[in-house]
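[step 3/7] inverse_fold.run input=structure_tokens len=397
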């Protein structure tokens, strides 16, 4: 279904016509709307795109550091801070595309929180040639996925408590102020419309029932042959199960409670334990998924319906059915909710991931003997000392 278009040539009979040659297509996400799949497919086809007049200027699958720097946002917990150098390099690479179409994709552009930042990004990435693409999914599907992603970045709050803060506790900014900046989708689209006008903003409503639909939409917009963009298997991007998320959330409590440094979390937990567990273990049908309570489903559906109406009123081009934004997925039939239990395999792979990450920073010096033995030292102090020693070795390396 195609609605509310502002030109006669886009889309045509339900099929989006290609953008003009030389367009700077900026895909701003937001998070959890198929961005990783699109980025992986574009990067895999990077060498074949120029023969069709298209350039993917990023040197990695996802120019996250450049987007964070452009939006003046911090890096993920413990990661290296993004710099203006990352942003400048991306700007230069986009300019080098010349008369060809270029496409840049990063969900972190959705974190730009004011008009001045949005206008600067647009100006640096093409000015009058920039076209903004926003991909949207139903809020009720985004919320559990976004919560477990926040847990992967150190969040310690349980899901239902988090939902209560996001939906019932004004001003709805704690513990994650970025959530509504990204996912109040009507206001997100409006911010970018103010910078480029409605005629240069396209909203794609992702249909989860059409697994290839998003790839085909990107191909048509960019004038690429059908099936050139193919999904790239990426187990590292899968969502955590409820048990895995709860294990990590409780680890986050211990980590914060013992005052360990953020860099250690990035190295050993997120990029060690969690990454290895996701790569090595696939969820089984017996794994408990993150289930959203009925009250939150109803609230999210109501917000989604209001956002769909507001987006229509903006006059932007919409590909897909806006009614999907308020759709309520069919609830699974449950004979009681089983308690989440992490499998021994997943726990072992997480522990191995920590050990493997730590092994990349080998011990170079032996510490002198201490006056107290390990058994005479509190567990809390041991955790703090271990954390600082590991961090010291990482920095030395």
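[step 3/7] decode complete -> sequence:
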């Amino acid at each position: 279904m195609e609605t509310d278009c502002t030109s006669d040539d886009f889309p045509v009979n339900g099929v989006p016509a290609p953008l003009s040659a030389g367009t700077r297509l900026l895909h701003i996400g937001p998070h959890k709307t198929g961005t990783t799949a699109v980025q992986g497919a574009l990067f895999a086809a990077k060498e074949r795109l120029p023969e069709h007049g298209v350039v993917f200027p990023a040197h990695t699958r996802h120019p996250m550091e450049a987007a964070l720097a452009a939006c003046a946002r911090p890096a993920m917990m413990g990661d290296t801070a993004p710099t203006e150098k990352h942003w400048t390099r991306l700007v230069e690479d986009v300019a080098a595309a010349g008369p060809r179409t270029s496409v840049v994709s990063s969900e972190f552009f959705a974190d730009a929180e004011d008009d001045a930042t949005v206008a600067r990004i647009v100006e640096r990435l093409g000015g009058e040639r920039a076209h903004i693409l926003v991909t949207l999914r139903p809020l009720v599907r985004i919320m559990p996925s976004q919560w477990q992603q926040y847990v992967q970045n150190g969040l310690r709050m349980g899901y239902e408590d988090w939902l209560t803060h996001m939906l019932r506790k004004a001003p709805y900014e704690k513990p994650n102020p970025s959530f509504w900046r990204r996912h109040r989708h009507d206001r997100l689209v409006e911010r970018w419309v103010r910078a480029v006008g409605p005629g240069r903003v396209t909203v794609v409503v992702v249909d989860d029932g059409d697994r290839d639909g998003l790839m085909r939409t990107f191909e048509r917009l960019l004038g690429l042959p059908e099936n050139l963009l193919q999904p790239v298997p990426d187990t590292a991007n899968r969502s955590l199960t409820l048990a895995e998320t709860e294990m990590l959330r409780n680890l986050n409590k211990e980590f914060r409670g013992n005052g360990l440094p953020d860099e250690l979390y990035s190295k050993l937990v997120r990029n060690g334990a969690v990454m290895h567990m996701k790569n090595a273990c696939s969820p089984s049908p017996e794994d408990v998924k993150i289930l959203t309570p009925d009250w939150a489903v109803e609230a999210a559906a109501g917000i989604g319906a209001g956002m769909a109406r507001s987006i229509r009123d903006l006059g932007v081009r919409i590909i897909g059915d806006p009614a999907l934004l308020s759709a309520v997925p069919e609830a699974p039939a449950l004979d009681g909710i089983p308690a989440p239990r992490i499998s021994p395999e997943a726990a072992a792979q997480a522990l191995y991931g920590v050990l493997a990450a730590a092994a990349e920073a080998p011990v170079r010096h032996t510490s002198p003997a201490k006056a107290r033995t390990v058994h005479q030292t509190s567990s809390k102090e041991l955790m703090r000392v271990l954390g600082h020693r590991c961090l010291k070795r990482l920095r030395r390396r």
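[step 4/7] annotate
The first helix runs from residue 35 to 44.
The two ends are 55 Å apart (CA to CA).
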